[in-house]
TrEMBL record:
This is Metallo-beta-lactamase domain-containing protein. It comes from Candidatus Schekmanbacteria bacterium GWA2_38_11. Residues 14-231 form the Metallo-beta-lactamase domain.
Length: 253
């Protein structure tokens, strides 16, 4: 299992969960909950590439992957941080919070969505009869995060509003940027969603795409070398320079 300066990635199909093995043991995001057969059939009919073992994984949800990763490495969890309120990140939040008996942290602006007080707009690509299967199980959030604060001595919060209102990146020891969905890596299964090594977030997935792009340069105020996006391949080195190039390109357009 590969660690990036002390941060592990847990692959769960097309999205990732991260584990910070620092002064505190933190699970970042919780992946998709088990998908309903109707949803899997629909995705299959629409040519979605699940990759090897992907369908089984979607049926089971990301929870089993997380638990087996933790068991295998004898890792414990002190708390869970959510990068944002989307279902592929908070899908197993309620069950894992209960299972680990830990506190959950998220940016204040996404808390109402995670707690089920507000509902995010239904994704336009999902047919109406399947929408109900995308509902997330509400979960109480214990710690409200804000921009630029230190969660602990090694993790800093960077608020990048746009993908969702309260989307955050986590900066680990000025080395690793856990990017959530604020930027995307190269998507090997579905190249249309991430053709380059580093990509802007996809417009359809953002609550406010314009803000999501406008706020990206904020990340350049910080130091980091590795970028861990939730979707797509990791950028192991030179991440800041490559993000700078991506931002330059997006301004020229
Ligand atoms: Zn998202
Ligand atoms: Zn996502």
């Amino acid at each position: 299992m590969q660690s990036f300066h002390g941060v592990y990635e847990i692959e769960a199909g097309n999205s990732k969960i991260f584990y910070i093995d620092g002064s505190e043991k933190i699970l970042v995001d919780t992946g998709l909950k088990p998908l309903h057969t109707d949803v899997i059939n629909y995705l299959q009919q629409n040519g979605y590439n699940f990759g090897e073992g992907g369908i089984e994984l979607l049926k089971k949800g990301a929870r089993s992957k997380i638990i087996s990763f933790l068991k295998k490495n004898r890792f414990k969890v002190d708390s869970i941080i959510c990068t944002h309120c989307h279902g592929d990140h908070v899908g197993n939040l309620a069950v894992l919070k209960e299972e680990f008996k830990v506190s959950v942290a998220a940016h204040s602006a996404d808390i109402p969505f995670i707690e089920g007080i507000e509902k995010i707009k239904d994704p336009s690509f999902v047919p109406p009869e399947l929408i109900k299967h995308f509902d997330i199980d509400p979960c109480k959030v214990d710690i409200s995060l804000k921009d630029d604060e230190f969660f602990n001595e090694d993790v800093r919060i960077i608020h990048i509003e746009g993908h969702t209102k309260g989307s955050i990146c986590l900066l680990y020891r000025d080395k690793v940027l856990i990017a959530g969905d604020t930027i995307l890596g190269k998507n090997l299964l579905n190249p249309k969603m991430g053709p380059e090594d580093l990509n802007l977030p996809s417009e359809w997935s953002c609550m406010d795409y314009k803000k999501a792009i406008e706020n990206l340069p904020k990340l350049l105020n910080y130091s980091f070398d590795t970028i861990l996006p939730s979707h797509g391949v990791v950028i192991k080195k030179d991440g800041k320079r490559r993000l700078e190039q991506l931002i330059q390109k997006s301004i020229q357009k």
